[in-house]
């Protein structure tokens, strides 16, 4: 079982309009809803790849009930979300069908009380020993300590379970210091963490700060990985066009899937890049196109070498 943690779960709502114009009214041509938050997105992709996945984090209110109801329809996914008094947030994506561009509006999460945070920590400690890997993903809702991920990393490591961290800002800075097995920042998050905009130098700095392996998302340029086994860059075979929503979460799912399947790093990176690209071209935001994934995974270019990084 792979455990994904989403402390700031969401109901993702996508509106499609023919052309998005500021300061005007629009007729919506289509609406979709699905459970969201980075860890939930990761779990959905992992389940589609055939893994058993448990989702935990916080959920509350009428929106939270919708999230949980929809989660029960996903084969291979177990709901272990912890209830809170506040309402689960919504995210609103508006897709301009003319350009393909997406405008995103993200609500803040519910305020988590100290008692609710303690209840989550107890639930997490019970779940971790049964996990083959843990993913800690996304932003922190109000009320959760900024060092929360650092503590959750330490709990997983104490249980001997590999842990991946995908967050940003101060939560990432403190989480890296707890020495997670993998961190997966994008280029902006990596630059904010290290102060460097040069990807290789920044990944080296992130490793010195405590991460065992750093896998940096470089957008259309793929992934750059610096690990104890070596340094590689994985690049998609062609530039893809579409909606990038959820592409980074699909890359995390590919890394976790490759980890539990005990693949060598180049194969893990190829899987992650192919899943990310297949998410961009999928007709539904945040889902991946299985046919595109199968077509792309064997064509990802991975360059680098095995060495002591």
Features of the shown structure:
309 residues; alpha/beta; eleven-stranded mixed beta sheet; four-stranded mixed beta sheet; 15 strands
Task: Indicate the structural class.
Answer: alpha/beta
Q: Radius of gyration over alpha carbons? A: 19 Å
Largest sheet: 11 strands, mixed
> End-to-end span in angstroms?
30 Å
Oligomer: single chain
Separate helix tally: 10
Shape: globular
Q: How would you describe what is shown here?
A:
The protein starts with a strand and ends with a strand. The chain is 36% helix and 26% strand. It has 309 residues and is an alpha/beta fold. The radius of gyration is 19 Å and the shape is globular.
Question: Briefly, what is this?
Answer:
It is globular, with a radius of gyration of 19 Å. It has helices at residues 38-48, 61-71, 114-127, 148-158, 169-177, 187-194, 199-208, 247-260, 265-280, 290-297, and strands at 2-6, 10-17, 28-36, 53-59, 77-79, 82-83, 89-96, 102-106, 133-137, 163-166, 182-183, 213-217, 223-227, 230-235, 301-306. Helix 1 (38-48) packs across helix 8 (247-260) and helix 6 crosses helix 7 (199-208).
């Amino acid at each position: 079982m792979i455990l994904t943690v989403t402390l700031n779960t969401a109901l993702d709502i996508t509106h499609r309009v023919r052309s998005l114009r500021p300061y005007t009214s629009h007729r919506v041509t289509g609406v979709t809803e699905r459970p969201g938050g980075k860890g939930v997105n990761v779990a959905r992709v992992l389940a589609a790849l055939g893994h058993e996945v448990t989702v935990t984090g916080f959920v509350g209110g009428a929106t939270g009930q919708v999230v949980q109801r929809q989660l029960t329809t996903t084969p291979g996914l177990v709901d272990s979300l912890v209830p809170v008094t506040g309402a689960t947030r919504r995210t609103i994506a508006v897709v301009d069908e003319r350009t393909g561009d997406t405008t995103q509006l993200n609500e803040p999460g519910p305020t988590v009380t100290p008692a609710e945070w303690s209840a989550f920590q107890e639930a997490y400690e019970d779940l971790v020993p049964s996990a083959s890997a843990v993913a800690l993903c996304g932003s922190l809702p109000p009320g959760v300590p900024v060092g929360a991920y650092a503590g959750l990393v330490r709990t997983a490591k104490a249980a001997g379970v590999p842990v991946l961290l995908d967050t940003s800002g101060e939560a990432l800075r403190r989480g890296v210091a707890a020495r997670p097995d993998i961190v997966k920042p994008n280029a902006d998050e990596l630059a904010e963490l290290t102060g460097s905009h040069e990807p290789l130098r920044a990944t080296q700095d992130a490793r010195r700060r405590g991460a065992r392996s750093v896998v940096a998302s470089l957008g259309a340029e793929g992934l750059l990985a610096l690990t104890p086994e070596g340094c590689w860059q994985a690049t998609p075979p062609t530039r893809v066009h579409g909606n990038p929503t959820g592409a980074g979460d699909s890359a995390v799912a590919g890394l976790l899937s490759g980890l539990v399947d005990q693949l060598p790093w180049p194969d893990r990176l190829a899987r992650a890049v192919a899943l990310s690209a297949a998410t961009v071209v999928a007709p539904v935001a945040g889902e991946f196109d299985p046919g595109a994934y199968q077509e792309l995974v064997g064509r990802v270019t991975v360059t680098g070498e095995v060495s002591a990084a």
